[in-house]
Design a protein that fits this description.
Elements: H1 2-28, H2 31-61, H3 67-76, H4 78-104, H5 108-143, H6 151-163, H7 165-179, H8 184-208, H9 213-235, H10 246-249, H11 253-287, H12 290-326, H13 330-357, H14 359-363, H15 370-383, H16 390-402, H17 406-432, H18 435-474
């Protein structure tokens, strides 16, 4: 028994020695250089990842004869895609910060238990989501804003997409564990491979093979399959600091509980995006019609183009925050936070500012129909006004998540969308007509950023101060 424990300990020590240079730089390398080295590939990965859906919509919107209607139909499927992504975030973003914290404490076996349980959760989610949405897809799509004119395109796209749910879950959910090790470039490559393949296959399937909307869906799931294979291969190789091991895939109640406690925040953030789109689409259909629902399909795509790069910055900095928090290096946590918020705010000011002052730059990517272009350009400056300062909230929320503060992070995730935006999107149009739906977005954004900053000032200081005291006691 003693020999077994000693052998296990030697294995962990040997593995830690082999990989220490890779993850220890999170706690030793100068912050500015470290943040750039992790954030730039992470931003690139997030931008590339969003191209899966964005590129589909760009090509679909330019299908001769029915591109605008098909684009609206595919836009209706967006809430389902977000729910699928939310479950991958639940397991991936719920576990990756915990794994980083454990690595900061040199507890690699615990980090691998978290990774293994994440794999088990993602496989279960894949089966449940695929079966559930395939059975109830038609009533769900009508609920999400489909009309008799757009339902056929929505069904064509989502039916094929759902077949590849397992690939989406593994590719997106497990890639966070590559980033958590400080391997941002590898994480970027895993996304880049699939996205480039998708860009190549889209025009072939949609136009050359004449498959239309179905071709876009086929191109997406094939590309995600390649990304998933790349991610799994890396996480089972000797290049990975922590690896997928069969013995840890079996779910452990305690480990799943830890993942769930932290994962509920990113899950709420992404899944409520679906609820938001459902609410907005239903209101736009009621007060405006298909053309207004079409604007939301474009607006949500542009919202991704703006917020996803910023989320890439936060995901790049997250391992630095978690690792150093686990190692008790509070000054590095503070330094990384300040730099992250500054960069995030600059990014949202710039990217959302373009949408506010030069909306046609974005809109013309998605459609060539003049009526849809004109209407979208009219509403976009209103819709994106509050996103200009949204980088502050993303920075604060990521910090709470990185420090393992599940409850606070969950509240912030729910605040903007569930507590503020959805009620406003229902109430405002009763007094302002269809434009009230678009005005609800900036009202919710400004309010949530203000509340988040106040909450962060009072809460974060207490967390870091207590951690600093505990670290001194341990010494």
């Amino acid at each position: 028994m003693q020999d077994s424990r000693q052998g296990s300990g030697n294995m962990i020590e040997e593995r830690a020695a082999d990989t220490s240079k890779q993850d220890e730089r999170l706690g030793t390398e100068p912050l500015g250089r470290l943040i750039v080295s992790l954030a730039v590939p992470s931003v690139a990965a997030q931008i590339i990842n969003v191209l899966y859906n964005i590129v589909d919509r760009i090509y679909i919107g330019h299908i001769a004869g029915y591109g605008d209607v098909a684009l609206t139909g595919v836009g209706v499927t967006f809430p389902i895609l977000m729910v699928i992504a939310a479950f991958s975030a639940f397991a991936g973003m719920g576990g990756a910060p915990l794994a980083s914290i454990e690595m900061g404490k040199n507890r690699y076996e615990e980090a691998e238990k978290i990774l293994g349980n994440c794999v088990g959760l993602l496989l279960i989610f894949s089966v449940v989501l695929t079966g559930g949405f395939l059975i109830f897809k038609r009533p769900v799509l009508y609920t999400f804003g489909a009309s008799n004119a757009t339902i056929v395109y929505a069904e064509e796209y989502i039916t094929i997409y759902l077949i590849g749910t397992v690939f989406v879950q593994l590719a997106v959910g497990l890639n966070t564990y590559i980033s958590a090790q400080g391997n941002a470039r590898i994480a970027m490559l895993s996304v880049l491979i699939g996205a480039v393949l998708n860009i190549i296959l889209d025009p072939i399937f949609i136009f050359a093979f004449g498959m239309g909307v179905k071709g876009a869906a086929f191109a997406t799931i094939l590309s995600q399959a390649v990304s998933a294979a790349w991610v799994v291969r890396f996480l089972t190789s000797k290049k990975s600091v922590i690896r997928i091991r069969r013995k840890y895939i079996k779910l452990n109640k305690k480990t799943v509980g830890k993942i769930a406690a932290l994962g509920v925040s990113p899950f709420a953030m992404q899944s409520t995006e679906s609820l938001v789109v459902i609410t907005l689409n239903a209101g736009l259909q009621r007060y405006g019609g298909d053309l207004y629902v079409g604007t939301m399909s474009i607006l949500t795509s542009i919202m991704q183009l703006i917020t996803i790069p910023v989320q890439g910055i936060t995901q790049g900095v997250q391992p630095i925050l978690s690792y150093n928090f686990g190692a008790g290096k509070i000054d590095r946590v503070k330094g990384a936070f300040v730099r992250m918020v500054a960069v995030c705010l600059t990014a949202t000011l710039l990217l959302a500012g373009i949408a506010v002052f030069f909306p046609q730059i974005y809109v013309q990517l998605f459609t060539d129909k003049k009526e849809l272009i004109d209407l979208t350009c009219q509403v976009m400056p209103v819709y994106f006004m509050g996103i200009t300062i949204f980088g502050i909230q993303l920075g604060c929320q990521t910090t709470f998540l990185s420090l393992g503060e599940a409850k606070v992070s969950l509240f912030i995730a729910l605040l903007r969308k569930v507590i503020l935006l959805i009620p406003m999107a229902v109430i405002f149009p009763k007094f302002m007509g269809v434009m009230g739906i678009y005005r609800a977005e900036p009202a919710a954004d400004f309010t949530s950023v203000t509340v988040t900053v106040i909450l962060f000032i009072f809460t974060a200081k207490k967390i870091l101060r207590n951690t600093g005291k505990n670290d001194m006691i341990n010494k």
